[in-house]
Amino acid sequence: MQIKFIRTIILLIISIFPGSVVFSQTLNVSDNDYSAGYATLNWSSATGNMFELEENSEDGWVVIYKGQDRATSLSGLPDGTYSYRLISDGIQVGETINFTVQHYSLKNAWAFFSMGAFMLAVLILVLIRGNLKINEQNTSI
Question: What does pTM read for this prediction?
Answer without folding.
Answer: 0.60
